[in-house]
Amino acid sequence: MFLQRNFLSLALVAGILSLASCNKSGDFSKTPSGIEYKVFKSTGAGKYDAKDVSSEGDATYKERIGKIMALHVEYRTAKDSVLFNSRKQQMGFPVRVPLDTVRKAQRGGLEEAISLLQPGDSAVFRFNVDTIFAKSFRQPVPPFMSKAGKTMTMYVKVDKVQAQAEAMADVQKMQVEQQAKMAAHAEDQLKKDDVALQAYAKKNNLTVQKDASGVYYAITTAGPGPKPKAGQIVSVLYKGSLLESGKVFDSSEKVGNKPFDFAIGQGQVIPGWDAGIAQFPKGSKGVLLVPSSLAYGQRGAGADIPADAILRFDVELVDIKNAPAQPAAGAQMDEAEIRRQIEAMQRQQQGK
């Protein structure tokens, strides 16, 4: 479901565009676990020479275990669609990955690939998509990835390897700088988006209203019910599309026209939905026009929603319900609730 804020947990690592051309010539080497790879060493001026790396692993990797690797990465599908790019989606800041012993169960995954690299290296890795999702992401392959093909490619540029204390200091500094950059970018982008949204509404003869956050909405069919209050559970039918191209990226039709339920005003969806759906009385139909800063911002969301994308949602607020009552403090849980919590903990542990 694209509306969930933690849509893409693929943001573990990413790559460099200048290396993309290296994928088009020469043969890949291959590890016994099936990872295809090319490793390069910079010769300056944006040029790279191939570097020999044993498919059995880098003998010096054991010296880096326990440290943190800072790297820029890019994921692409088998059809060459960009899934994640750290330079663009992290405002130029690298991803940091703890280095640990590569266990047998991790062979064929990201962990083994990263163990082949040293500071200053660049590389192209090609993974079997079933293997990478099973071993590194520990989740089923998303349908759009399966549809794209049997492989996933990762481009990597290693910046440096640091001791944990040094890396932590860098991360704290980076977070402050990143927040300032993101805030400045969002403010500037919101002004641009607002101009585009007004032009779109005029061109498409939409009579819209604007809420305090910057979301535009148009109620095309007014419902008879009340508006939802913060904390209530709303049920929404929707179709989401990119404002610029009109391309549909998600809809209720994909799940049998089943409404999407969420607690409004609780941060369970993008801010534009929390703000926009709150304006609709129960039973209403209409349109939400969401500026990028209230959607997925500069990061985007996977291959279907690019960075700084303005979104349109055609919505219907089907139902509003009060949230289930919470157990009183100290109330005794029944056996079913205890079992549910244990199962939830087990699933969480398996996801680590």
TrEMBL record:
Give one Pfam family, short name only. Answer: FKBP_C
InterPro entries in the record, alphabetically? PPIase_dom_sf, PPIase_FKBP_dom
Enzyme Commission number(s): 5.2.1.8
Query: Has UniProt tagged this entry with the keyword Isomerase?
Result: yes
Could you tell me the superkingdom of the organism this chain comes from?
Bacteria
Q: Supply one GO molecular-function term.
A: peptidyl-prolyl cis-trans isomerase activity
Q: Sorted alphabetically, which keywords does the UniProt record give?
A: Isomerase, Rotamase
Its recorded reaction(s) are: [protein]-peptidylproline (omega=180) = [protein]-peptidylproline (omega=0)
Record-annotated PPIase FKBP-type domain positions: 231-321
Q: Which family does it belong to?
A: Belongs to the FKBP-type PPIase family.
Indicate what this protein is called per its UniProt record.
Answer: peptidylprolyl isomerase
The source organism is: Hymenobacter psychrophilus
